[in-house]
Amino acid sequence: MAIDGVSGRTSYIGSGILNLRSQLETLTQQLATGRNSTTYAELGAGRSLTIGIRAQLSNYQSYADTAVNVNTRINVANLALERLNAINSTVKGAAVSAGSTLDNTGQTAGQKTAVLNFYDAVDMLNSQSGDRYLFGGRATDTPPVVAADKLLNGDGAGIAGLKQVINERRAADVGAAPNWGRVIVSTPASATAVQIGEDFAANPYAVPPVGPSPFGLKLSAIATTITGAVITQPTETPPTVPPAAPNPKAMSIDLVGGNPSDGQNVSFTFDLPDGSRETITLTASTATPLPADSFAIDQGDPLAVPPVAPDPVKTATNMKAALTEAVKQLANGALASASAIQAGAEFFSQPPLRVAGTAPFTGATAQVSGTAADTVIWYTGENPTSPGDTARGSAIAKIDDNITVQYGARANEQALRTLLQNVAVFAAVTTNVTDINASGKIAGLNQRLAQNLAVIPGTQTIQNIQADFAGAQASIKTTTDRQTQSKSISQTLLDSIEGINNDEVATKILALQTALQASYQTTSQLYQMSLVKFL
Question: In the prediction, which pLDDT does 1 show?
């Protein structure tokens, strides 16, 4: 009888050992990884749910990364805005309290403060987070504001900076003797009258007609307390006949009722280029010496033979001389300051505005738009493409499946432009220390800048921008907190599907190791059997 070897009959034992070893390897891998499978197929019915949960967790991580990036950018932008707020307060305080004492450079201590703060303000508006400029709208790869020195001084190659634009506008507004402020003080047809007319450069009958310019003093109103005087409010003088250009306006006072009494006065009110108003008030006086802002009442000569009666014609002549001097002071003082403010507003416009032509300024009649070929364009960032294209909307981040936040900013937003513009003007203006009207000019500049840097109801402020950023960060925090909770819940569910019980797996491993050891011993004994041993 044939006797088979043990290998043929005991092959099922080897298969069992291999199966035990496979189970042991699987359990060992589970214990090492904390997962009960390495492929989705091994998860059975739970694989679809697992895939969905993992995709959701991946989205949460992506949104979390976005939130970190956006928060970082907003934090950097907020630091810049905080500094700009401080600059606003510092320069406004300097304008209020610095006085009008000039140093050898022709600037006050307050203006020196403005110079330093202007350079700092430009740096703040060119803030970066990583490689991204924060105040250029969608243009994030280049600084949105040109270098501070170039903005003030131009590039020295025919491209005008703010200082040149201010000087050009001042020359056009202030004019020169005898037509300070581009007005004419004259005696009209009546010898007892004084007339002041605006814009001597206008000529409605020229070919082509030359209308009133945007420069110089513009007449607003005249008022008087002089008994019997007749005043004429600003009217076109003489009236023109279309299609000729409008004539400049004139206003006048006529002492047709006789001489004024001591203390009676006449007021001439003017509109200035920056939208402000100034009034010259001249008071009739018989005092000697004549007080400031007064005109002498002619008293005649009662001791002459025959006596000479007071003459309103001579009084009108005195008023004319006083008005001429007062206009000169106004033109070289408050008007020069208002001109600088307006020049700043026009320089920071897009496009900037320049005085047409180059010389003489006193004959300037119009303005032209500056170009990059002749004028510094201060803002080089992205401009809005439509009325609804807001600065905040120039940077949008998706922080959840259906939630986005807007956190863009542009350096030419109203609040930022207003700050930079006024600090720049304060830093750019210089005054000759020998100018007898210097104190009036500086006082007018200080007053206007302090007003412009104050909070004006209805206009955007830096705090408004910060509030927008705060709203974006609040939305990010709320969304991130909710996602953190959802992520924890999703992770727990995923662990329940993919995870293992370590104690249970360890127990199974011990049991398998025991079974495997017993199988090894049995198999070893079987393979050692022979016919001799069997018999």
Answer: 45
- Cα separation, 495 vs 489, whole angstroms: 10
Per-residue pLDDT tens for 424-433?
999 999 999 8
Contact 469, 74 (CB under 8 A): yes
pLDDT at 237: 76
CA dist 306 → 122, 259, 297, 298, 303 (Å): 75, 20, 20, 17, 8
What's at 90, amino acid-wise? T
Predicted pLDDT at 260: 97
| 3-class secondary structure, 219 | strand
> Which of 87, 207, 89, 230 lies closest to 148, judged by CA?
87
According to DSSP, the β-strands at 277-285 and 294-296 are: parallel
Closest to 146 in 3D by CA, of 131, 162, 130: 162
DSSP state, 333? I
Secondary structure, 3-state, 413-470: CHHHHHHHHHHHHHHHCCCCCCCCCHHHHHHHHHHHHHHHCCCCCCCCCHHHHHHHHH
Residue spans of alpha helices (H) in 105-222? 109-125, 148-153, 162-174
Residues of the chain with pLDDT under 50: 1-3, 5-6, 8-9, 45
